[in-house]
Amino acid sequence: xxxxxxxxxxxxxxxxxxxxxxxxxxxxxxxxxxxxxxxxxxxxxxxxxxxxxxxxxxxxxxxxxxxxxxxxxxxxxxxxxxxxxxxxxxxxxxxxxxxxxxxxxxxxxxxxxxxxxxxxxxxxxxxxxxxxxxxxxxxxxxxxxxxxxxxxxxxxxxxxxxxxxxxxxxxxxxxxxxxxxxxxxxxxxxxxxxxxxxxxxxxxxxxxxxxxxxxxxxxxxxxxxxxxxxxxxxxxxxxxxxxxxxxxxxxxxxxxxxxxxxxxxxxxxxxxxxxxxxxxxxxxxxxxxxxxxxxxxxxxxxxxxxxxxxxxxxxxxxxxxxxxxxxxxxxxxxxxxxxxxxxxxxxxxxxxxxxxxxxxxxxxxxxxxxxxxxxxxxxxxxxxxxxxxxxxxxxxxxxxxxxxxxx
Length: 407
Hints:
This protein is of the alpha/beta class.
């Protein structure tokens, strides 16, 4: 199937081709016709499946078919600044041949310029919840003309405590509208919100909920907590290691890790909530350009971060919430590419690892790196001594990295 077969305008097809995409992904094949028909939609899709284009392309087409308005006619709400910026950039890229005006709102920057853009008139508004409510509270934005609303990464908004803000935003919208929910999972709170906000929605599950992309090769390296930094440096020195995204649980740990990597001559930068928006934007730009090859992040970057060419995602710390593991590793193997996900698992993290394996539905291959396996006494902590023998167990030397495909 081609994009032309989905009923998209030639202007959009040209823009998609210029972006390097020839054929639609499964979620795009199924979602685009539904959105074009202006029906409500619930789409459960993994990261890296092309879901942003699945709602942007048909929404832009619907906007291009109407008269220009002073107030926005379509709204996309995202949980993070980075995701809002990316959606905004993609909207401009795909609408390059259409008379559709768009802007992006998020916190961490001044409101004056955003106020001027809102006053100038636009068709599509992309925003984080807090900044949108700020503008609404100052009567600098109006949602009375919204025809279509998209909640992107709806479950992440719940995780980040934005659900009250989202409810306030939905209450400010016209009752008659098209509502599109895109989410990797559907917690009870999100399902309840959807039931109150949609009319006979179409449900699309592009893949089984909360499962990793099949082209991601996953492996667990057991290691003592005190030796994780040393092992990380060994892994990053591998000739096959390209651009790596490393996840930590805390902001302080991310900063410490960057300093350690810099002493090891690895070009690294951190991104987390304590960084200013300018610093976060600069860090992502350097990572995308290749000026730095290692991005150390907290879970603020687990969803929505779209960087071509990430070869490895490394879980320096295992997440407390198993579903965050799926969202983290979804930063690699995007747009049909392959990638690798490495978890550095200390004996104290056995509980988190077990929860992750239950979620993904199978054990993750376990591989000991020579010289880094935890001492037998430590390995028994958390009953890991029971777990390791039942898994495919190999010893890895200091040479080329290997990972095992999860079927």
